[in-house]
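Quick question, first post here. What does this chain look like in 3D?
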Amino acid sequence: MRSRVLLIVALLLLSLPASLASAATATVRDGGTLQLGNVTFRLDGIDAPAFDQLCIDEHADSWTCGIEARDHLAKLIGGRQVHCDDLGPDPSFKKRRLGVCKVEGETGSLGQLLVRQGFALNVESSATGRFMTDEARAKEDRQGLWKGCFATPQEFRRGKKDGALLGGSCRADRDRQIREVIFPDDLVMPAGCSIKGKFAVRARVTGNLGIYHLQACRSYPGLNNPDRWFCSEEDAQAGGFRRAYNCRPPKANKGK
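> Answer (accepted):
Ran it through. Tokens below.
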């Protein structure tokens, strides 16, 4: 009888909406993504720099804005409990969920705080964007990304090197030099993120932007000057990259 009751309780817990079970200590994946338990949420309504993205600061020096955005999100959370309202599957990557996430004790969402402090962009139109006022204020005050010069996270992820640049320190007379810094030929690997990504036309056949290569792949040693670096296969797949065909999953150990 006891085992039957436990089974019923377990089934009831599994049937709860994700939004009711998503209050927990968060693990920050990047500037716009966090994980609660086994669920990864992308913060709805914003776009934060990719983890490996570079920007220009107010002194015209390169800075790792993607890492800074991740660290800033972690600082906003500060070890407190996070609650996410689950809005459903992320249209760009079904293994993740869209969420409106708040920190215990805060009235504004994490997305709004990131935009307000200049570490993310409002991705909705100027007519309907929830955070357009916060973005305008961050831009005027040159907060976060806006203090320097940067490509939009979306254009960086797609390798669009000729797109518009944003920020208070963009100079038309130094445009070529700035782009060479933001899109270097030899993108430095972030610590602990050793998966190489390369844009590839042939990847578009499967609806992807490029191909990623693991250290165990035959293609890995000879792949120089990767376009992207990823910390996990999930991050690479969420970024629109597929695994190289010469990368095979490790063989499962046979039981004795």
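The domain at 19-182 is CATH 2.40.50.90 (OB fold (Dihydrolipoamide Acetyltransferase, E2P)).
The helical segments are 2-15, 65-77, 110-116, 132-141, 153-157, 175-182, 233-238.
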